[in-house]
Specification:
Elements lengths: L1 H13 L3 H13 L11 H11 L3 H4 L4 H11 L8 E5 L13 E6 L7 E4 L4 H7 L8 H5 L11 E5 L10 E7 L2 E9 L7 E5 L5 E2 L7 E2 L9 H11 L5 E9 L2 E8 L11 H10 L5 H5 L15
Parallel strand pairs: 7-9
Antiparallel strand pairs: 1-4, 2-3, 2-4, 5-6, 5-10, 6-7, 7-8, 10-11
Length: about 300
């Protein structure tokens, strides 16, 4: 019975108008309703973006191939993982010359990743990718950018060395300035740890339920370069998270994230308020406009 009730609830929430759907999901996640008319915290502003922001600048951030194109155009010096194949039928991979290690993921979703080795097992890949082309982030959670992405699977080159797990360096960029660095380790091993730092690599204490704090570590040798790359990639956005990797002393592009955690992950209340004050939302007229944002001089407003 609980399972049936859960399915019924998801079905009802799925059919709600977007603002109502997000209000329900936000209240369940954070224990309070979001202030849609006057968002103040970081997660409230993420929720506002999900509901209101329809700029082409934001629309491309649900499509991994479009993100790579944006990164190559905006920051030509950053290394970008090569796309070895894209399509909807993994059977096509038998005709692709794949390296010893490669990564399969959906173009239009998040969190789904398969690391492959050598020649592909097509039957196994079809089982693994069942449902990947029907990513529910838009219909179930209302995350609009994923409704704008091309529904494809893609294979990228594997970064790093076999057996080694790279740290994810996630830079929170507000109006072209990095204000917080999130370092995730062990995500693919089941030993997920997270540590937050200022741009000057001072450890930030935050209470994040369900996340185990990682150790305080020295800054990567490429921190200065990563900060510069993150700020270059984030310069046209009021807010974006820029994910980068340090691979043997070289900076590699990961992705651009418009909705970290979908705005629904548990979040430290004090940090939620601090980051919210750093984010100046664009005006309601601007986010409905069908034109690229005009850059740092664009009009601002509270929404």
């Amino acid at each position: 019975m609980p399972g049936e009730l859960g399915k019924l609830r998801r079905s009802v929430v799925r059919r709600l108008p977007l603002a109502a759907k997000r209000a329900v999901l936000y209240a369940e996640a954070h224990g309070r309703r979001p202030r849609l008319g006057d968002p103040r915290t970081f997660t409230e502003k993420l929720n506002w973006r999900v509901v209101h922001d329809r700029r082409p600048l934001i629309a491309q951030l649900g499509d991994k191939l479009a993100m790579k194109e944006y990164a190559a155009r905006t920051c030509p010096g950053v290394r970008i993982p090569r796309v070895l194949w894209s399509g909807t039928d993994v059977a096509e991979l038998v005709a692709v010359s794949l390296p010893e290690r490669w990564v399969l993921k959906p173009n239009h979703g998040t969190l789904r990743v398969h690391v492959g080795a050598g020649r592909p097992d097509i039957g196994g890949l079809r089982r693994i990718t069942t449902g990947w082309l029907d990513e529910p982030l838009w219909p179930e959670r209302g995350e609009w950018v994923y409704s704008q992405a091309r529904r494809l699977l893609l294979v990228e080159e594997f970064l790093g060395r076999p057996g080694a797990v790279l740290a994810d360096h996630k830079f929170l960029v507000f109006d072209g300035t990095v204000h917080l660095v999130q370092v995730d380790t062990g995500r693919s091993t089941g030993l997920h740890r997270r540590r937050l730092y200022t741009r000057d690599w001072e450890s930030v204490t935050a209470h994040e339920p369900h996340v185990i704090p990682g150790p305080v570590t020295p800054p990567p040798a490429t921190l200065g370069e990563m900060l510069a790359v993150a700020e270059t990639l984030g310069r046209d956005f009021d807010f974006v998270r820029v994910d980068l990797y340090d691979v043997d002393g070289e900076v590699w592009f990961g992705e651009l994230t418009p909705y970290p955690g979908g705005g629904l992950d548990p979040f430290d209340p004090q940090l939620d308020r601090v980051l919210g004050r750093l984010w100046t939302l664009p005006g309601r007229t601007e986010v409905r406009a069908r034109r690229p944002a005009s850059g740092p001089g664009r009009r601002r407003g509270g929404g």
